[in-house]
Design goal:
198 residues; alpha/beta; Uracil-DNA Glycosylase, subunit E; seven-stranded mixed sheet; 6 helices; 21% strand; Uracil-DNA_glycosylase-like_sf
């Protein structure tokens, strides 16, 4: 599954993806250029952050949003989490800097490839990382809402893939200003109410 044909950047697919009762895909926006950019860059970053050989706030915030802000930030716990999910970037084109948005053409190409991505990974849930990414996803086949104390009426879209329906929502980009507690509630609500959203 790590070789998604036609894509330059390989996705991260955890060893236990889809084996815990629900298949969860974490959707990033893009990868930006750096001295170590390669087709395996995403896999290297997650492997290093899960093992503790690198520490990156972006990946720690994702982990805490899913697992909860009180979760122990040990390499063992991070490894368990990352091996339970799939991670891929929506845009496969390289972006020149972390502060730049992908081009309109790159987003258009990614939207054209969206259905193929869903059919390949067959997720039950997708959590998109960032409002800009959310705004550039295809509209889907339906929309509903989940509510938490901090995020009333937070949108959830439905999409169909080759074996079922996937529910998709977003969290803010897990960079400097990010509340893992707020987004943990949203993600939990997505999972708890997933069967009732149609």
């Amino acid at each position: 599954m790590n070789n998604f044909e036609g894509r330059y950047f390989k996705p991260w697919v955890g060893d236990n993806y889809g084996r815990n009762g629900k298949s969860i895909l974490v959707l990033g926006e893009s990868i930006y250029r750096c001295p170590r950019t390669s087709p395996d860059r995403c896999i290297e970053l997650i492997t290093n952050n899960a093992s503790g050989t690198e520490r990156h706030k972006f990946y720690t915030n994702i982990f805490l949003a899913f697992e909860g802000p009180e979760k122990a930030r040990t390499p063992e716990e991070k490894s368990i989490f990352w091996h339970s999910v799939c991670y891929i970037n929506f845009v496969d084109d390289l972006v020149e800097s972390s502060r730049l948005s992908p081009s309109r053409e790159s987003f258009d190409k990614a939207r054209d490839d969206w259905q193929r991505l869903l059919d390949h990974f067959k997720p039950d849930y997708v959590v998109a990382l960032g409002k800009r990414l959310w705004d550039n996803l295809p509209t889907g086949t339906g929309q509903d809402y989940i509510s938490t104390l901090d995020k009333p009426n937070h949108p959830v879209r439905s999409y169909e893939h080759s074996t079922g329906t996937v529910k998709v929502t977003y969290v803010y980009h897990p960079s400097a200003i990010f509340s893992s507690g707020v987004w943990h509630q949203v993600i939990n609500e997505l999972f708890d109410n997933g069967q009732q959203l149609l």
